[in-house]
């Protein structure tokens, strides 16, 4: 049927595809069901001449197919893309980019039904298309996105400079009247009843009822079905229980009935498959089938699909579950789970394993074991630690009951890991020791190697460096003998991190670099990211004057952002916020901390650094939220039992109480962790807590390895402490040391720094001291209005505005600030809104008026 009122949309899509030969384009066609998204895309693609169009679709299965659209596309494209399906995600991505660079157009329909693996690939393709030619066209239903926040996030992360968004509008009353006139069925009420939805209009005009407008699409489709023969109706019902396209062979010798459905406009034929013209029609027919009949139809489809070579296991599992065929679920759900996991769809893999486990209910323990193992691993990987613990404990009980000591030991090793990830550090350590004791009966096993490495990690986190080195070295040697690259990388990270915290720090850094190289080359993104994070964070915590620390953090951030490792991104944003706080860049520090918190609470401890930094900043500014923020940071830190979390939060809580004038609480807050830091911690953690104990009036013994700034302050040498902080480049700490002086000039200098940083409470406390000491001329603080950013912009938004004024694209802003593209999109929109402008050019002019500029790098 002719497309009416779609000229503008067709022009946007055609132009984007044409431009994609020089610069990548992603086109998102978004609208309600039946609005004509596929018809629009098809109409443009049919006019592309020699350009190849590759179509893939997401289907509304109970659990989606693993990278289903890419599998559709690969079957059509063949060659390298088809071969890449047997490789890694990077192989598939590289092959897809090669196809796009060869001027192919890749269409992914119904993204709202996508699995996580497909969403990951779409996000990665979108990022690469900023610098690579090719056209990616996505269609999705706007109303379906409400229940799929992960799909909304992927669409939001697509780089704005290469994205074109098309939202087809409903047809006007005039267009609907024209269609009705052409069909010979003038219907004055049709536009009001259909809302201008093209599919609804089409179904109504094709319906057999000539007396009025059907009340719904379902009613209109029912009228179509009523007009076909019983044999054709059986074909339509069979096709209705197959989401997406159904192979012609599924229908057996029913060619005439299929032809009748096609002639009636119910089904369309594409190569060797048939499908309803729209999923709304399929659902209307399916809903009209009784539940018993529907189950029988699913059994027929399942039986037929089993005879189709290469049938997707997710489709087989879908029909097995709908048919209630327990034996078939047991056969197909595990294969579907493994395919989903390999594609990065861990939530889908967990759903399949849960279905397999339910099908094994009442079976002997050996039959349940594989399903429990799958549930335990996938629940851990997709951030459901409590479910992972539950399944792993069930496995442990099975293996202990059967006398399988090797598997029971491995269960204990896994329990230790998940317990730590859940914030139960002490329990994780005890279970880790049990795992090693059990597995030492099998001295040359991969299970023992990983258990030793896992226990080394816990020792490293608990500041037991000698234990970490001994356990990790043993794990590394065993893993190398077994040619187990994953465990070698894991163990090297633990040993390197422990060494980095001592005098052999350069050897530790070298081991971490080796761990990163091994893990990255083998595709172990999590291990590779952990190695980079530990390089950066260990340097930040222990060698704060190391000039490499900022570059280390940014390097780790880029790796984590590129691979979508949100937990590490969250952790690194908090760490970078901490470095910014120390260096006096409070605006960017606050922006990083809030960006970290916006990612939600990821599994583990990733949220702790941002909470600590924000709480400390709020404390110094005198903001009421400081209590709540630091209480939450303390909750997370205590759950781990690890000094590297506890010490910074304890110091922040002590500072908060001290600024409030509550010395007893300050001493208690610092003292709670000081003994632990004295026995196991590095000098900086211990020195900072000793400093707050001293400030609170509690006795504290000096140690030879106390960091110079803290040692001089405790000794009463405020000038020496200030000079030591100045040498490190930490302005607030320098001002805080000057504030302890009884020298008026030093106090005035401290006030200037406090005021410049916005440390309102710190400045107020010092002014009270100076007034009490009789200082006659105390500099006045800044007016409240001057402390707020121009136009109400946050510190990060001011940075973004400065880059916009310099002509930077969103991708360049993301790279410059080392933040995710979706965060840039959010900031740019907010900046334009606050400035009251509609374009980047106007924003640049506003920046000039406001005096926003960015220092050259």
Topology:
Layout: H1 7-19, E1 25-31, H2 37-45, E2 53-57, H3 68-77, H4 79-84, H5 89-101, E3 105-109, H6 116-128, E4 135-141, H7 149-157, E5 163-166, H8 173-182, H9 190-194, H10 198-206, H11 217-226, H12 230-240, E6 246-247, H13 255-263, E7 267-270, E8 273-276, H14 279-287, H15 291-305, H16 313-323, H17 326-342, H18 346-359, H19 365-381, H20 385-402, H21 405-421, H22 425-439, H23 446-461, H24 465-481, H25 485-500, H26 505-522, H27 525-542, H28 549-562, H29 566-582, H30 586-598, H31 608-621, H32 626-640, H33 643-659, H34 663-680, H35 683-695, H36 708-714, H37 718-728, H38 731-739, H39 744-757, H40 760-772, H41 784-787, H42 795-805, H43 810-817, H44 821-835, H45 840-850
Parallel strand pairs: 1-4, 1-5, 2-3, 3-4
Antiparallel strand pairs: 6-8, 7-8
Helix pairs in contact: 1-2, 5-6, 6-7, 7-44, 10-11, 11-14, 12-13, 12-14, 15-16, 16-17, 17-18, 18-19, 19-20, 20-21, 21-22, 21-23, 22-23, 23-24, 23-25, 24-25, 25-26, 25-27, 26-27, 27-28, 27-29, 28-29, 29-30, 29-31, 30-31, 30-42, 31-32, 31-33, 32-33, 33-34, 33-35, 34-35, 35-36, 36-37, 37-38, 38-39, ...
Give an overview of the whole structure.
The protein is mainly alpha-helical and 857 residues long. Helices cover 66% and strands 4% of the residues. Helix 26 (505-522) packs antiparallel against helix 27 (525-542), helix 32 runs antiparallel to helix 33 and helix 43 (810-817) packs across helix 44. The chain starts with 6 loop residues before the first helix and ends in a 7-residue tail after the last helix. The model is unreliable at 853-857 (pLDDT under 50).
